[in-house]
Write a structure and sequence with these properties.
By secondary structure, the protein is an alpha/beta fold. It has helices spanning 2-14, 29-35, 53-60, 64-69, 75-89, 136-158, and strands spanning 19-23, 44-49, 93-99, 113-120, 123-130. Strands 2-1-3-4-5 form a five-stranded mixed beta sheet, sandwiched between helices. Helix 2 links the parallel strand 1 and strand 2 (44-49).
């Protein structure tokens, strides 16, 4: 996975793009992996860890209506997380993720399910993720790897 973060940082530097993160299920793991790469400070604007609904509302400006109608584990929530964090941190790209690492279902969503949104320049893409892992940490690691893979692909597709 680490090689992928090197690829991401190199890609961002090459195209003079900046990135931010807004994380729930991964608890800051995506941001942590990015800043392990030397030179990440040239491209990484910052990250929010919004583990509770209160934090999602107060820090990422997710509307109370979205949280009450759709829940934190929803495409609507992560889209707001990505778009609002992008605006707040003035980045070109934002990775936002929220899901259920277990051990029990939450919001009627199974363990290992999450939603990912990637806001890139003026478009936002979202994905529903169902990990194969079953342990909390493995779910977080797999979700982080998927977020990275999708972000690299979107950047490459956007700059063609």
């Amino acid at each position: 996975m680490k090689d992928s973060y090197v690829e991401l940082v190199d890609l961002l530097k090459q195209h003079e793009l900046t990135i931010s993160t807004c994380e729930s299920i991964t608890g800051g793991m995506i941001a942590s992996m990015i800043v392990e790469v030397p030179g990440a400070s040239k491209v990484f604007k910052g990250g929010l860890v919004v583990y509770t609904n209160q934090a999602k509302h107060n820090l990422a400006n997710v509307s109370e209506k979205t949280l009450s109608e759709y829940g934190a584990i929803s495409k609507q929530c992560v889209i707001e997380m990505a778009n609002n964090t992008n605006k707040k941190l003035r980045s070109d790209i934002c990775i936002a993720i929220s899901g259920n690492a277990g051990p029990n279902p939450d919001e009627n969503k199974p363990v290992g399910m999450s939603f990912l949104a990637i806001s890139i320049i003026d478009k936002t893409y979202w994905y529903e993720i169902k990990t194969k892992s079953t342990s909390r940490n493995d779910i977080r690691i797999e979700s982080t790897a998927i977020a990275l893979e999708k972000t690299i692909k979107l950047i490459k597709d956007s700059i063609k």
